Amino acid sequence: MFAAEQNRLPRLERYLSSPRHNPTALRLILASQLRRMRLTASLSPIAASDALHCSDSKISRLERGQVQLKERDVADLLRLYGAGAQETEEFLALVRRSNEAGWWHCFEDVLPKWFDKFIGLQEAASVIRSYEVLLVPGLLQTPEYARAVGEGSDLVYDKEMASRRAELRLARQELLDYPDPPKLWVVLEEAVLHRQVAPREVMAHQMRHLAVMAQRPSIRVQVIPFDAVACVSSGFPITHLRFDPPELPEIVYLEHVDDAVYLSKPEEAEQYRSILDRLLNAAECPESSALRIQAAAERYA
């Protein structure tokens, strides 16, 4: 690890010391560092693009972590920015790690291509804001509830595939147990508590689990009641991701039936941040929401 890395690559230790490899997180942080080094060197994106014989838009995508880091490109940029030999060697070693397969690679048989990016981004985020219309968020699902959701999907044709997808969903939840977990802020429509997607005993256990998870310091769950005065609804789930370092772009994830959209332009993030704020204003406080969740558990019991 090169000199003064603690100041230059914030939160990097979280990923290097993790038992699971997250190349997305490394790529985001390294990309952010390349931008810092360019600014420190008082160079414009055009000057950097000239060094790589590419467009300045490629430099922008590279510094946002939107493309894979290539060793040759990074080496040329580090040379341009005045990095020393040891610093370059250690930086390139991290670049190689950022290009390795993520821990979720073993789930390729059931992992849609458009979803693997989300897994890495979610695990790299420092704050996750989520709005759900009909289902408990994947990060807060019990194994039995997750399997029921998978088996009820038109896209899952057998129980084995449903079980594998449930296994992946549960593996994703490990990020909540990290020493430095992301802040998870969930807003649920009350319909989530009433939609019975599994047997009653499974639903009761899911509601109790949701209530317990909501007590964690890093997790906040709020419910929008059916009779909310502010009639606000986007009609579809929204996930908003914020990262540390803060100069990384915020990302909005919108999932469809067989595809997903990733939005990272500032104006797009602001639009959906505003929507989430309005939804939050329509929701009950965490304490009142907890009572609704506990009441739902008792109804299913």
| H/I helix tally | 14
Order of helices and strands: HHHHHHHHEHHEHHEEEEHH
Q: What is the name of the CATH topology of the largest domain?
A: Endonuclease, Chain A
Q: Helix proportion of residues, in percent?
A: 40-55%
What is the top-level CATH class of the largest domain? Alpha Beta
Strand order of the largest sheet: 3-2-1-4-5-6
Overall domain count: 2
Mean pLDDT equals 86
Number of strands: 6
Which CATH architecture of the largest domain is right?
2-Layer Sandwich
**Beta-strand percentage?**
5-15%
The global form is elongated
**Major beta sheet summary:** 6 strands, mixed
Structural class: alpha/beta
Which oligomeric form is depicted? single chain
